[in-house]
Specification:
Layout (H helix, E strand, L loop, with lengths): L13 H4 L3 H11 L7 E3 L2 H8 L7 H13 L3 E6 L2 E6 L2 H4 L17 E3 L5 E3 L20 H5 L11 H7 L7 H13 L4 H12 L13 H6 L32 H13 L1
Antiparallel strand pairs: 1-3, 2-3, 2-4, 4-5
Helix pairs in contact: 2-4, 3-4, 7-9
């Protein structure tokens, strides 16, 4: 199970503040037990064994906590083929996705949204909660262009423009997007990132761009703060200060004596 990210903003979250201590604990333990897409089995007995293997927590307490989290819009409860599942909301804004396929069906595949009492209410497929991270079966050929509009009020977060501006299209685009969101959350604007990569690569040749890191690595290493993103290859394949063995000359006795005199004067 990958490590999960918890940000200090949870301490001032109004949604989290409305939860009881037990409900808040369930929320945090769900974060570390969900799969890489923020989903898990929502059967209360299963969650009891996963979330509280060492504590005497009742099944009805788990069910009540799930209802509270759903009411607070922190999780999406849904059913697929009569089986309950849950999806952590805003998962894609805070966690890295490494796996390519989820262990569980996505909410977008569900035709039945769970009500607070645990019963399923039939809904139109178009009304089901959207999957915040597209699965491999998504027919959209460019999931990042759709995922670029996942924030409040459908605000464009600028990833499409950043990806178009980044000269080297290597690595996993979804991982780059997750890292991009982390950078935005730290207060860096899309314009800053785009302008930085343009300035750093404006004089780079196609050969130079082979030494440009992938977008994910550039973002993770705060590449916008560097003067240059492209590492210039050493001339003749030799790093600076390199002396081939064939060109090496052993010091003479005079060189050694001069060095010894210098040391003695210090």
């Amino acid at each position: 199970m990958p490590n999960r990210i918890l940000k200090e903003s949870i301490c001032t979250s109004e949604e989290i503040d409305k939860l009881s201590p037990l409900q808040e604990t369930v929320f945090y333990r769900l974060i570390v037990n969900c799969d890489d897409f923020g989903r898990c089995d929502a059967r209360a007995k299963i969650l009891k064994s996963k979330l509280f293997p060492l504590k005497d927590i009742r099944v009805d307490q788990i069910e009540a906590a799930l209802e509270a989290l759903s009411s607070a819009e922190l999780v999406i409860l849904y059913e697929v083929d009569g089986k309950p599942f849950l999806q952590m909301k805003t998962w894609d804004r805070h966690q890295r996705v490494r796996a390519k396929v989820s262990k569980y069906p996505a909410p977008v595949d569900a035709c039945c949204q769970m009500t607070a009492d645990g019963s399923g209410a039939q809904t139109n497929a178009g009304e089901c909660a959207r999957n915040p991270i597209q699965s491999e079966s998504n027919p959209n050929p460019n999931p990042m262009r759709e995922n670029a509009r996942t924030r409040k009020d459908e605000e464009d977060d600028g990833f499409t423009a950043f990806w178009d501006a980044y000269p080297r299209k290597s690595g996993d685009i979804r991982s780059a997007y997750m890292e991009y969101l982390h950078v935005l959350d730290s207060g860096i604007s899309p314009e800053t990132l785009i302008e930085a990569i343009k300035q750093q690569t404006k004089d780079a040749t196609s050969e130079d761009l082979h030494f440009l890191p992938g977008a994910e690595k550039w973002l993770r290493n705060r590449g916008w703060e560097s003067k240059a993103a492209v590492r210039t290859p050493p001339k003749n394949g030799r790093p600076a200060g390199f002396t081939p063995a064939a060109e090496y000359k052993a010091p003479t006795a005079a060189d050694i004596n001069a060095l010894q005199d210098m040391i003695n004067r210090i």
